[in-house]
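FAQ

Q: What does a record look like?
A: Structure on top, sequence underneath. For example:
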């Protein structure tokens, strides 16, 4: 329903030619802005309900007091893989986990795995590249998420969370304790949950608009054939270049996999193409701008740097294996 509305608004009401870069960019901006705002509110609302009823404090205590030998990171990666969210849509869940006091490394594992290992991408990969490439994609994406989360967790980056998150953690704990004592009925909690959900959307709305605007400009104005021209030959800088070019872009796995298939058909090594896809769906400027609400720029830079390095290493490994 959103896409026909975006087409009607941009092409009929605004009168912008659909064949022009401006038309493509504006249509992308309208569609994704509406989609992400709706997703953000719905996911934030669901997370509000979960936070109200799920014993997040008990889970936090369990994760922090028990030695799980990596199982917590694996479960976070697995949960991220089965959630059908893009990088931007995963942020509300990430906020909910951080507010609940879940260890930062575990929450970052989820944040990386959620867009990176997608059931949509798995299905499309299976049809386009076969079982071997699909297994490598799934296993590497899961392992990559766990390694990145573990490294970031060991770096003790909690001080670089924003003051907004630190205050939200204290309020969340106090609110959970109050609701547990009062045993407030769900219908009475509903207005508070709704208000907090809209507060999350409103708090990141500017970042959403800025990020999607940049993504829309890239989507509409990057010349056709640009990436094939510079990534078609096998050379040492092909993988890093693919990752760097992918970060400013923003798309979901369903729209990226067909592009990757075209890349491979035009001679781009599969490992380079997979690294490009991982960077698009796992690292994006819209995601970075939304994360500014919960992280300082230093933490965002460290997060992106570690994940980017691991994606580049994975790209080289893919090209060597496949």
């Amino acid at each position: 329903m959103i896409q026909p509305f975006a087409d009607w608004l941009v092409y009929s009401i605004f009168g912008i030619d659909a064949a022009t870069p401006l038309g493509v960019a504006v249509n992308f901006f309208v569609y994704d802005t509406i989609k992400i705002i709706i997703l953000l509110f719905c996911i934030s609302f669901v997370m509000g309900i979960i936070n109200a009823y799920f014993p997040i404090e008990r889970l936090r205590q369990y994760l922090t007091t028990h030695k799980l030998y990596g199982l917590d990171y694996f479960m976070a990666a697995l949960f991220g893989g089965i959630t059908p969210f893009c990088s931007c849509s995963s942020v509300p869940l990430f906020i909910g986990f951080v507010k609940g006091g879940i260890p930062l490394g575990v929450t970052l594992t989820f944040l990386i795995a959620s867009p990176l290992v997608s059931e949509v991408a798995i299905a499309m990969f299976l049809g386009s590249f076969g079982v071997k490439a699909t297994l490598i994609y799934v296993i590497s994406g899961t392992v990559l998420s766990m390694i990145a989360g573990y490294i970031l967790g060991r770096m003790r980056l909690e001080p670089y969370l924003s003051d907004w998150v630190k205050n939200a953690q204290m309020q969340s704990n106090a609110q959970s304790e109050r609701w547990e004592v009062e045993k407030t009925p769900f219908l009475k909690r509903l207005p508070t949950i709704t208000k907090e959900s809209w507060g999350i959307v409103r708090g990141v709305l500017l970042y959403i608009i800025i990020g999607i605007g940049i993504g829309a400009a890239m989507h509409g104005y990057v010349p056709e054939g640009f990436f094939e021209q510079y990534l078609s030959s096998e050379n040492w800088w092909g993988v890093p270049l693919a990752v760097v070019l992918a970060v400013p872009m923003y798309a979901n796995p369903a729209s990226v996999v067909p592009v990757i298939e075209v890349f491979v058909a035009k001679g781009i090594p599969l490992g380079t193409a997979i690294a490009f896809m991982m960077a698009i769906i796992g690292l994006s400027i819209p995601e970075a701008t939304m994360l500014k609400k919960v992280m300082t720029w230093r933490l965002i830079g460290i997060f992106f740097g570690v994940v980017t390095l691991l994606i580049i290493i994975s790209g080289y490994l893919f090209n060597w294996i496949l």
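Q: Is there anything notable about this one?
A: Residues 2-321 form one domain.
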